[in-house]
Design goal:
about 200 residues; Rossmann fold; 4 helices; about 25% strand; globular; disordered N terminus; disordered C terminus
C-alpha cells in the first residue's frame, strides 16, 4: 500500500495469535453445537472460505469428525447491489454458489474475516436460505471492528478491534497473501470509498 493510500500501518495480530484465536473459536463452536455432527461451516469468499476450512481442520483434530465445508457467495443478495430494482429484486436469477448442499435441519456456521456493518452477514443469511432451512445459524469472524448498521452480531469472534471509519482492517492469509497477519491502516480517503461495507 502506497504512502498516498495510507498514513500508517500497525499489526493487530501475528500469525501465532491468529492460530490461537481460531483454535479457541473452534472449541467454542464445538461446545455450542455439542460436538461436530450435523455441522456445516460455510465461508464467505475470499478469505472467509479459507477460514472455514481452517476451522473445519481444527474441529476434526479435536473431535475426529470433519464438518462439511462450502463456499457461500452472498454477492447476489446484497442490499447495495447496483443492479437491484426499486422493488428490491435484482431482475436476474440469484445464486449462492453452493447448489449441491442442502442445509435443511443442519447446524450452520457462516465464517468471514471481518465483521463491519453487518450487511455482508445479512446478505449471507439470505443466500444461505436458498439451500434450505437450517436448524440454526451462527456467525464466526476473525475480527469484529464495530460500526454495525443492522441488528446482527457475530457469535464467535477472534478479536474485537474498536476502529474509526477512517481505518481499515486487512486480514492476510497464507492461502491468499502468502502470510498470516492482521493489520490496521488509516486511509487518507474515506473508508467507504474503498469498497463495499462488510
Amino acid at each position: 500500500m502506497s504512502t498516498e493510500e495510507s498514513n500508517f500501518e500497525r499489526d493487530l495480530m501475528s500469525g501465532a495469535e491468529m492460530r490461537r484465536a481460531l483454535a479457541r473459536m473452534a472449541h467454542e463452536i464445538i461446545e455450542r453445537n455439542h460436538g461436530a455432527h450435523n455441522l456445516v461451516i460455510t465461508g464467505i469468499p475470499t478469505r472467509g472460505k479459507h477460514l472455514a476450512e481452517r476451522l473445519a481442520d481444527l474441529i476434526e483434530r479435536f473431535e475426529s469428525v470433519r464438518p462439511v465445508t462450502a463456499s457461500l457467495n452472498p454477492s447476489d443478495f446484497r442490499d447495495d447491489s447496483s443492479v437491484r430494482h426499486a422493488n428490491g429484486s435484482s431482475g436476474v436469477a440469484r445464486s449462492n454458489g453452493m447448489p449441491e448442499i442442502d442445509v435443511t435441519g443442519l447446524r450452520v456456521v457462516v465464517a468471514d474475516d471481518v465483521f463491519h456493518t453487518g450487511r455482508t452477514a445479512r446478505a449471507a443469511l439470505d443466500a444461505l436460505m436458498q439451500s434450505g432451512r437450517p436448524a440454526y445459524v451462527h456467525l464466526a469472524v476473525l475480527i469484529n471492528r464495530g460500526h454495525r448498521e443492522l441488528p446482527i452480531n457475530p457469535d464467535f469472534v477472534g478479536r474485537h478491534v474498536p476502529t474509526s471509519r477512517a481505518e481499515r482492517v486487512h486480514v492476510l492469509l497464507k492461502e491468499v497473501d502468502g502470510e498470516d497477519r492482521v493489520a490496521l491502516t488509516r486511509s487518507s480517503v474515506a473508508t467507504q470509498s474503498l469498497g463495499v461495507a462488510k
